[in-house]
Amino acid sequence: MKTDCIRKKVKFQDIGKREVIGQFNGGAISSDGGSLLLREVEKRTRIIEKFSECFDDHRDKKRIEHTVNELLCQRIYGLALGYEDLNDHDILRRDPLLAVLSGKEDPTGSMRRCQRDKGKALAGKSTLNRLELSTQEQLGKSYYKKIVSNPEKIDSMFIDVFIESYNKPPDRIVLDIDATDDPLHGNQEGRFFHGYYKCYCYLPLYIFCGHHLLCARLRPSNMDSSKGTVDELERITKHIRQVWPDVKIVIRGDSGFCREEIMFWCENNEVDYIIGLARNNRLNNILKEKLIEAKMLYLKTGRASRVYKDFLYQTLKSWSKSRRVIGKAEYLGKGPNPRFVVTSIDRKEADELYEKHYCARGEMENRIKEQQLYLFADRTSTATIGANQLRLYFSSIAYMLMNALRNLGLKGTEMSRSQCHTIRLKLLKIGAQIKITVRKVWISLSEGYPYADLFKQVYKNLRISFA
After folding, report:
1. Domain positions in the chain
2. Which of 134, 292, 323, 349 ranks highest by number of CB atoms within 10 Å?
3. Is residue 264 within 8 Å of 321, Cβ to Cβ?
4. Exposure b/e, 89-118, CB count within 10 A at least 16 = b
5. Is 307 within 8 Å of 329 (Cβ atoms)?
6. pLDDT tens digits, residue range 244-260?
7. In 3D, which of 133, 212, 93, 185 has the Cα closest to residue 389?
């Protein structure tokens, strides 16, 4: 039964002598007409299909109405389109366009078995929620929770997608590592208070290579930000080198990852690193003369100035040996701003290493914000850390899909560097009327859409990529 808010007319401000009346009775109309581009990306990359292969389905095949792939398509396309909550899907399950994206052969839902499900081609919030909450331990105990994810396969799938995005092996790749806070507002498993972030949170670990996401690991926050990094690096580099044995790998991170364990592992596995180094009195004294020089330059020019010092350094206790450290003696309007990095790279000048190589890690922070703010990686509100990890995977796959659209479809356009929310607003949120016949699905996009030429170029780029 339709709700009153859908049945009733909504009267807006008049325009001249005309009344302006609104109703939710337009029929099969969608605000997500551009989402068909995402389906083109999926057909090209098979990201969601590969993700679905990482799940074990123990349901009775005779009773299945929604395959694992269809459920995941519904959830991940929903995130990409801005529908972060499962509650949204109790209405979205009626959307024939989302059903088309999800691969439903009956996008109107007219052939559903139960009368109460007629007209609802997709799964409701309860079915999607059971997908998130199913675990290996519940098999045979729960009537509903029978679709179980395989985290090891999912982790490997991230790397496979990254490798397949290259036409030929690169000579060198840089793996950016970072941790961030994921604030919690309930009593979730693994919930702890973090003194630096001043809130109860998780502390997820991310590893990117450029725009490509290689690892999204949810962790409790009662640990050092670098914990588990070596395990992830070992897993990732081993997988990559099985396919690209000659590729040079560089690790990059902030001072939270300047740990003996990480540097020692890199030095023993032919992996270079450039990592931030926290300031201390010994380092500041070493850089003292350069800071005076930078101050003189600032007073002379009135502009921020920086001078570099290249030296060997070893901590009093934690490091096993001396390592190359680059100190940046910078002087700003607010005063001195010394910074340090430690690196195993000995083939480049200090200023180039710091400015061109280390500072580029800031781009990774943009990728993390993109996933958390616009693809809802922070919606970790279920009770268990395992279910919340799966939600993080969903967000990660949505990011990978959007990133593939950016790399394949937007290449060479004015939006080639746009973030996910801009892509969603300008390319995916298009008014569309859907008409479904026996043989065809007609999508009539809005004639007033202002980016039609860009849309056509993106479509053309995606079709060329199929060749």
Report:
1. 26-148+415-465, 165-374
2. 134
3. no
4. bbebbbbbbbbbbbbbeebbbeeeeeeebe
5. yes
6. 999 999 999 999 999 99
7. 133
